[in-house]
Amino acid sequence: MHALGEIHRVLKPGGIYIMLDNVNDGILKKIWIPVMTFLCNEKDVSFRSRRAFEDLLARAGFSIEKSESFLYFTQIFVVKKQNSVIE
Prior knowledge:
CATH architecture: 3-Layer(aba) Sandwich
CATH topology: Rossmann fold
Strand content: 25-35%
Number of strands: 3
Order of helices and strands: HEHHEE
CATH class: Alpha Beta
């Protein structure tokens, strides 16, 4: 959340931020998370759902302009800075 708050702070009003990240929907939830949990310490494996990312972005003061799946478990978020941060 701190990183999103900092991105929000440095963007101009109405500025656009494009974020690409892995989400735990679909195939990632079924295959990738168990593999990563096995290969790494369980505490080191943390993936959010698409909805959880959307909630984080909204709480950081962004409006979601577009959210699109890419390559099974990657999500592209195009967000716009709103005028004030919602705490």
